[in-house]
Amino acid sequence: MNKLTINDIAKLCGVGKSTVSRVLNNDPKVSEKTKQHVLAVIKQYNFKPSRSARAMRGIENKVIGIIVTRLDSSSENRVLRGILNRLEELGYEHFITESRFDIELVQEHLYSFEQRQIDGIIVFGFSGLGQKILQPYSSKLVAIAQYYPALTSIYYDDQGAIRLLLERLYQENYRHIGYIGIHKQDYTTGYLRYQSYMDFCAAHQLSPNACLGELNYLTGYALTAEILQQPNTDAIVCATDSLAFGVNKFLQEQQRDDIQVCSVGNNPLLKFLFPQNISINFGLFRAGQSAVELLINLLATGQKTHCCIPSNFE
C-alpha cells in the first residue's frame, strides 16, 4: 500500500481534512469522540504526517514535546522555565502536556508526540513510571527527576540534600531533629530522603522521630503535632517546601519560635512568609537548561548520558 496522506485518513474517518489536522495539533475544539475515532484510524494505519506537511504549517525548526507531572508544581515550573528559556534561545518549538502521575497518560502523550514526528522529548519522571515505557523513545528522550540506567536522565542528589540540612543542624548543636516526609512508595522524594535521615540518625546516635504522609502543606501541618509529641524536639527537617509551609504555619499558630525548620526546594514564597526557614536548592532552573543540552547532544550523537544535580544553600 502506498503511503497514506492526510486526505486518505480524512476519507477513512469520514471527516474533513481540517478535522484530522486539528486532531494532530491537539485542538481542544475537537470533540473527544471525534478525536478518539481519528486517532484510532491513525494508529491502525500507522499514519505519520510528512515533514513537508509540517513545513507548510510553518514548523521548520525542531519541535520538543514536554511531559510534566503537575502544572501546579512550583519546583517543576522552575525546571520548566529553564527548559523554555533554552528552547527559546535555540528557536525551537514546544508542546507541553501533563501526566498527573498517570502512566497511561504518559503513554498517550508519547504516542501523540510520535504521530506528530516530534524531534525530541523531555519527560518528568515519577515513581511507577518504569524505564520500559520510555525506552522505545530512548533515541530522542531525556528524563528528569528519576535515574534511568538505559536512558539519558537528569536526577537530583536527594540523599545529599537531606544530609546537608542535617549536618548544618548538627553543627549548630541541634540534637532532637524530627523529620516530615512523604510515603516511601515514592522512591526519590519519599524513600531516598527518608533513608538519608535515618542513616544520619544512626551514624550520629540520634533518636529518629519521623512521620510520613502526602505531598502537600496540609500533611505538613497535620504531622507537626505528631512530631512534637517528643517534647525535646528542637528542629524539623521537611522533605519538600510544600510540607514546610504547613509545618511553619502550625508552629506559628502555636507560637513555637524555638524550633528550627528546614526543607528542600528553596521556594521564594516560603522564604518571604517564613524567612527563618532554612532551605536547600537543587538549581532547578539550571536543571531545565541542562536537560535541553543533554537532549541536543543525544539527537546529534546518539550518546546517552546521565547528570546528577547537586544541592546547595543559597
Automatic annotation (TrEMBL):
Record's keyword annotation contains Isomerase: no
One GO biological process term: trehalose metabolic process
Keyword vocabulary terms for this entry: DNA-binding, Transcription, Transcription regulation
Family annotation (InterPro entries): HTH_LacI, LacI/GalR-like_sensor, Lambda_DNA-bd_dom_sf, Peripla_BP_I, Trehalos_R_gpbac
Keyword DNA-binding part of the UniProt annotation: yes
Coiled-coil spans in chain: none
Boundaries of every HTH lacI-type domain copy: 4-58
GO MF, one example: DNA-binding transcription factor activity
Entry-linked Pfam families: LacI (PF00356), Peripla_BP_3 (PF13377)
Protein name: Trehalose operon repressor
UniProt organism field: Conservatibacter flavescens
